[in-house]
């Protein structure tokens, strides 16, 4: 009870007007948003854990899972609540933010419903398509296909749906070790903030800060010494993935260079994108899946964190290594901003070499028998 009151007091203090003004006077608005979202997440996570225990919403051990005891789900509700509270209290909603917020809410609702009732994969996919459609309805659309291509509007819409589905599921698939999905949300959010600052998009920088803080507030209960107290669940992992995908689409990463505009968010999200592509290709090549439905429903220990563990790393070592790889790719994204064509090529080749090393390590891990 004392700890709960202390966490609540921290939230109340941060909501006081003089505290906000103090942060603003030293031009630390980004840090304030991180702190507020962190405090709300830190307060909310034990509450949703108690609800999950009360209603037996648990992730049970299984052959294809790495945890050994039943663990409460619904942690994603705390991350979503922390992000939503911070945004509602501090932001004027742009049209794009409204679209991402509506879509993220749909994704969270579908994910929590899946945590509670174990929805069929097709229904989850339908919910994610609906969430992407909601964001698109508010103008959150990629602008990759040039306007001289016939049907460019619908092609851009199709690519936007594909982007949302890919990033959302890529983060969800990586939610297989303590701290991994939420930690990648922190790493990606930081680099989106930096690149947004580089390109003069302070609104997007502050929005990324809210996501960073919300994920940080959850991590003490999930990435800790000993076993996790609560898991994100599908609702939380899907929310983080969908929000990161939305940040990427909302941003203007390079007005005059479409290549840099494309690769900046791709590099920041390089680890989950590489993992979903690599694992998907291996599953198809080895005949494990033959249809889209099978691919959606398939679960197995063949993702990057499983391969690193097969090499002999502990779970925490595997997660930290993935964080370092994601940070390396994020640094490459930062370098693209004012790079000459030659420097941009070097940065992209460097990133490709990093991913090639990962592919080799995964191949070695795949060849080793599981302990």
Walk me through the topology.
Elements: H1 2-15, H2 17-25, H3 29-54, E1 58-59, E2 71-72, H4 75-90, H5 95-117, H6 121-137, H7 152-173, H8 180-198, H9 202-218, H10 233-250, H11 258-268, H12 270-285, H13 292-297, H14 304-310, H15 315-335, H16 341-367
Antiparallel strand pairs: 1-2
Helix pairs in contact: 1-3, 3-4, 3-9, 4-5, 4-9, 4-10, 5-6, 5-10, 6-7, 7-10, 7-12, 8-9, 8-10, 8-15, 9-10, 11-15, 14-15, 14-16, 15-16
Q: Can you characterise this structure?
A:
This protein has 371 residues and is an all-alpha fold. Helices cover 73% and strands 1% of the residues. The protein has helices at residues 2-15, 17-25, 29-54, 75-90, 95-117, 121-137, 152-173, 180-198, 202-218, 233-250, 258-268, 270-285, 292-297, 304-310, 315-335, 341-367, and strands at 58-59, 71-72. The chain has a two-stranded antiparallel ribbon with strand order 1-2. It is globular and about 55 Å long. The mean pLDDT is 89.
Shape: globular
Largest sheet: 2 strands, antiparallel
Q: Please, how many helices?
A: 16
- Category from helices, strands and their pairing: mainly alpha
Count of DSSP strands: 2
Going across the biggest sheet, name each strand in turn. 1-2
**Model regions low in confidence, pLDDT < 50 over at least 5 residues:** none
Specify the helix fraction band: over 70%
Instruction: Kindly provide the radius of gyration, computed on alpha-carbon positions and rounded to a whole number of angstroms.
Output: 20 Å
Strand content range: under 5%
What is the string of SSEs from the N terminus onward?
Answer: HHHEEHHHHHHHHHHHHH
């Amino acid at each position: 009870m004392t700890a709960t009151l202390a966490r609540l007091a921290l939230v109340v203090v941060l909501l006081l007007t003089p505290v906000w003004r103090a942060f603003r006077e030293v031009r630390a608005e980004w840090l304030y948003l991180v702190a507020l979202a962190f405090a709300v997440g830190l307060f909310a996570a034990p509450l949703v854990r108690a609800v999950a225990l009360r209603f037996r919403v648990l992730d049970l051990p299984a052959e294809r899972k790495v945890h050994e005891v039943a663990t409460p789900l619904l942690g994603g509700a705390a991350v979503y609540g922390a992000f939503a509270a911070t945004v509602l209290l501090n932001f004027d909603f742009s049209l794009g933010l409204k679209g991402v917020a509506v879509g993220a809410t749909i994704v969270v609702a579908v994910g929590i419903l899946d945590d509670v009732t174990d929805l069929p994969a097709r229904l989850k996919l339908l919910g994610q398509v609906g969430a992407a459609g909601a964001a698109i309805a508010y103008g959150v659309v990629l602008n990759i296909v040039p306007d001289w291509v016939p049907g460019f509007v619908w092609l851009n819409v199709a690519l936007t749906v594909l982007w949302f589905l890919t990033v959302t599921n890529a983060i969800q698939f990586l939610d297989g070790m303590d701290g991994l999905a939420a930690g990648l949300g922190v790493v990606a959010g930081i680099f989106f903030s930096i690149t947004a600052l580089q390109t003069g998009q302070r609104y997007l920088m502050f929005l990324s800060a809210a996501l960073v803080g919300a994920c940080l507030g959850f991590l003490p209960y999930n990435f800790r010494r000993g076993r996790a107290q609560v898991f994100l669940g599908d609702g939380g992992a899907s929310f983080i993935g969908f929000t990161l995908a939305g940040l990427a689409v909302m941003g203007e990463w390079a007005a005059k260079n479409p290549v840099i505009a494309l690769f900046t968010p791709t590099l920041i999200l390089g680890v989950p994108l590489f993992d979903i592509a690599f694992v998907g290709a291996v599953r198809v090549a080895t005949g494990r899946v033959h249809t889209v439905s099978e691919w959606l429903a398939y679960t197995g220990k063949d993702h990057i964190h499983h391969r690193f563990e097969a090499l002999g790393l502990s779970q925490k070592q595997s997660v930290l290594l993935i964080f370092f790889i994601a940070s390396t790719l994020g640094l490459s994204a930062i370098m693209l901003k004012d790079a000459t064509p030659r420097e941009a090529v070097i940065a992209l080749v460097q990133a490709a070499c990093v991913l090639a090393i990962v592919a080799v390590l995964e191949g070695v891990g795949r060849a080793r028998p599981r302990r």
